[in-house]
Amino acid sequence: MPLHPLIGHIAARNRLSQAIRSGKLPQVLLLTGPVGVGKQRLALWLAQLARCEKPGGEPCGECRSCRLVLTLSHPDVHWYVPIPRPKASDVDKLVEEAAQSIAHVMDERRSEPLYQPADGMATHSLASVRLLQRRAALTAVEGGRRVFILAEADRLIAQESSQEAANALLKLLEEPPAESLFILTTVEPRRLLPTVRSRAVRIRLGRLSDSEVSTFLKTHMRPPVSSRDLDQRVALAEGSIGSAFGSGEEMGKAQTAATQWIEAVLAGPGPAYEKALKQTTWAARGEFTAMLDALADTLGDAARETLGQNVRRSVPKALLRYREPAPLLQAMERVADAREAAWGNVNPQVLLAVLGEELAEVL
Ligand SMILES: [Zn+2]
C-alpha cells in the first residue's frame, strides 16, 4: 500500500518547496512537533519533492520517483527508524542486523502505512549510525539527491556506545556528503545532543485542526467508525492523527492503568501501593511507555485544572486536591525522566517502584 497523503502543514510545505526551487534547502533539517502530527510523513513528502521528476510546489505523485518514495522503495531515500538493539557479536554483523530490522519495519509500514510510535525500547544504536555512514558514503543509485531520514532522532541514546554513535552522526552532519539531505524528526528537541541540534535548521510543525483530523479519519479509518466515536476520537486526539488512531482501546487501557497507579501511589503505603509497585503487566514495553505517557497527560491536565483552564479528560479525584500547579509539574518532570529511562535497558517494575517513591515525595 502506498503512503497515505500528507495532511496540513501548508506553511512548512511552502517554505520547503520554495527553498528547493531557489536551491537554498539546508542539507540538515530538524522537524519538530507533537507526536502523531506527521513529522516523518512530511520528511517523506520532502524526499519525494527533492526527487520528483516533474516537481511543482508539491511533488507530482505520479512520476516513477514519486511512486517509489510512496511505496518506500526508492533506492536513494533511506528512512531510519528506531529498532531493538542489535545483538550480533562483531561490527559487520551488527550493521547487517540493523539493516534487516529496519527493512522489516519498512515491510510492516508498506502493508500498514498507519503505524504506531516505535516501541519504547527501540533506539538508534551505533549499528544504525554505522549503517547510515556506510550508505552515505556511497553515490546515489539513480543520481541526484540522496535523502536520509532519521526518525525520532532523540532515541540516539544507546547506552555504552552512545558517545561513539553520537560522534559518528555528528561527523556526518557537520560535513554532509554532496547532494545529500538529512532530515531528523523529534517530539522533544531538548533531548537531542546540543551538538546535533545545532547542526540542523529547525522547522516546527504544529497540531492539525480538528477538521483535518476528522477528514483523515473518515477517509482512512478501517473499519469506518461511527460518527459518535469519530467525534470522540477527534476531541481526544488534540490535533494528532497518530493519537486519533491510537485513541481506541489501547489509549483507554493506558489511561486506566495510569489512573489506577497514581491513585494507589497517592493513597500511601498499604496493600494498594504494594500491588501498584508490583504490577506485572508491563511485559510489553509499548504498553509501559504508553502508560507513562498517559500518566504525564493526566498530571498535565490536573495542573491545568488548578489554573482554571479547560481540560479534555476528567482528572482522577485524588489529583483534584491541589490548589497550585507546582507539585503536579514537578511530578510531570519525574515522569518525563522515567519515560527517558524507559528507553534504556531498565526493568519497568524497578522504574515504576522508584517513580512511585519520587511521586509520593513531591505530591
Ligand atoms: Zn513526481
Counted by DSSP, the helix tally is: 15
Average pLDDT, rounded to a whole number, is 87
From the alpha carbons, calculate the radius of gyration and give it in angstroms: 21 Å
Portion in beta strands: 5-15%
Question: Could you estimate the helical fraction of the residues in percent?
Answer: 40-55%
What does this protein structure show overall?
The protein has helices at 10-21, 39-51, 64-70, 91-111, 126-137, 162-174, 194-197, 210-220, 227-237, 241-246, 249-267, 271-277, 285-306, 326-341, 348-362, and strands spanning 28-32, 77-80, 146-150, 180-186, 201-204. The chain contains 15 helices and five strands. It is an alpha/beta fold and 363 residues long. The protein has a five-stranded parallel sheet, with helices on both faces. Residues 52-54, 59-60, 63, 65-66 line the site of zinc ion.
Keyword list:
15 helices, globular, binds zinc ion, five-stranded parallel sheet
Write the layout of secondary structure elements.
Layout: H1 10-21, E1 28-32, H2 39-51, H3 64-70, E2 77-80, H4 91-111, H5 126-137, E3 146-150, H6 162-174, E4 180-186, H7 194-197, E5 201-204, H8 210-220, H9 227-237, H10 241-246, H11 249-267, H12 271-277, H13 285-306, H14 326-341, H15 348-362
Parallel strand pairs: 1-4, 1-5, 2-3, 3-4
The structure holds zinc ion (ZN).
